[in-house]
Design goal:
439 residues, alpha/beta, Four Helix Bundle (Hemerythrin (Met), subunit A), Rossmann fold, 434 Repressor (Amino-terminal Domain), 3 domains, 54% helix
Length: 439
């Protein structure tokens, strides 16, 4: 996501490297490159021009402090303007009514149904008691898809078999939600391959009948400026309250994300990436601007870690490490918790300065599978005491895991080195010796 744009912007800022001060000439050259980068990323040309004009006006004449280079100053100016372009502040979900109804709209194939389930799981993790309503009565297997996703999210799905009236289904779902104390109802609606009058009228009728606290428009970010144009049409009819950018993990240049707020004047509320139900991120303008400019997104990374790691488990693990009792069962648990945080490449991209460095790397999300298979092929006793692993035991493990002896030996060596490092750290801590890095 935004990898090519980030790289192009980094190149633009290099034009100011070595410059002693900001001038109209060097700013103009840099802004020209920034505008090209935005247009190449499929940003609406009018939006790109307005953005770079603001950057130019703010940058020219600014005094550069001794501690700040012209390049650093330009990064700061662009960062601030990106934050404004994205909406300034995080726009939270609004909840009103009993239940609070969230209406999901968008074209067919935009990812509405998957997002509906993701949102249900997300809200459940925030202490809400959501349920889903299947109101797409046209697409074959749409209701069954939502039912299966509901099972994965552990959220009930209201389905009215045989009914072809979305408004009736939605009204019955509201009654069910009230009776069963569900305080949020997420309504998945039908889409079409393109905008048509029948679809728009149906969604308008659902809006009128339900009085939703939120109408979220889901748009496929891979469709570029078509996504922005579709959002404009939907907004004119529905006056939706927020945008969800789906498929941001695909082959997208990011133009829709950068243009849509400016064009429809509605906030981006979520970014949906991948098919896994936990692959949903609340949209924070300042964090996204930081990621685009290579500053990373440490806050989001910490939040992901907090969601993935259990406090009691962390305390239990700390006690085992302090007693030098860390074993393969503990190691396996840690791997599984890291995987909960999401796509490895996306996690690494949240680290400052890393994003542009890994854009061409193929980081395989299945990298842990071989390690997991090897550990799971060990007996409980072997996991607790790897010293038991003689040649015959090793042969049994590699046969059971489908891996090879070299991979197992490498894992055992790395695990031994890690335990030795933990032991050294414990000795330093117990002796009161401070940790020092470097000389």
């Amino acid at each position: 996501m935004f990898e090519n744009l980030s790289s192009r912007l980094e190149g633009a800022f290099k034009k100011l490297k070595g410059q002693g001060r900001i001038t109209e000439i060097n700013v103009a050259e840099t802004v020209k490159e920034i505008r090209r980068a935005l247009v190449d990323a499929d940003v609406n040309y009018k939006v790109a021009k307005e953005f770079t004009d603001k950057v130019k006006d703010k940058a020219i004449g600014q005094k550069v402090l001794q501690a700040v280079s012209p390049g650093q100053l330009m990064v700061k100016v662009v960062h601030d303007e990106l934050v404004e372009l994205f909406g300034g502040e995080r726009s939270e979900i609004r909840f009103s009514g009993n239940p609070a109804v969230i209406l999901i709209a968008g074209l067919q194939g935009s990812g509405k149904t998957t997002f509906s389930a993701k949102l249900a799981k997300y809200l459940k993790s925030k202490g809400k008691n959501p349920m889903l309503a299947a109101c797409d009565v046209y697409r074959p297997a749409a209701m069954e898809q939502l039912r299966l996703l509901g099972v994965q999210a552990e959220v009930p799905v209201f389905i009215r078999e045989g009914s072809k009236d979305p408004v009736d289904i939605a009204n019955q779902a509201v009654k069910f939600a009230k009776t069963n104390n569900h305080n949020v109802l997420i309504v998945d609606t039908a889409g079409r391959m393109a905008v048509d009058e029948t679809m728009m009228q149906e969604v308008e009728q659902l809006k009128k009948a339900l009085g939703p606290s939120e109408i979220l428009f889901v748009v496929d970010a891979m469709t570029g400026q078509d996504a922005v144009n579709t959002a404009r049409i939907f907004n004119e009819r529905l006056d939706f309250s927020g945008v969800v950018l789906s498929k941001m993990d695909g082959d997208t240049r990011g133009g829709a994300a950068l243009s849509i707020k400016s064009v429809v004047q509605k906030p981006i509320k979520f970014i949906s990436q991948g098919e896994k139900l936990d692959a949903l991120d609340a949209f924070y303008p300042e964090r996204m601007a930081g990621r685009i400019l290579g500053m990373g997104d440490i806050v989001s990374l910490v939040e992901k870690a907090q969601d993935a790691f259990d406090q009691e488990e962390a305390e239990r693990l700390q006690k085992k490490i302090s007693k030098n009792n860390f074993d393969f069962d503990d190691f396996l648990t840690q791997l599984q918790q890291i995987k909960k945080m999401g796509n490895l490449k996306d996690i690494m991209a949240m680290l400052p300065g890393v994003g542009s460095k890994i854009k061409d790397l193929d980081i395989d999300d299945s990298a842990f599978k071989g390690v997991e298979a090897l550990i799971q092929s060990m007996t409980p006793e072997e996991r607790r005491n790897p010293d038991l692993l003689n040649n015959s035991r090793k042969q049994r493990i590699v046969r059971g895991s489908g891996r090879n002896i070299q991979e197992l030996n490498k894992l055992l060596t790395q695990f031994s080195q890690m335990k030795q490092m933990m032991k050294t750290m414990n000795k330093m801590r117990s002796s009161g010796m401070p940790f020092r890095f470097g000389r």
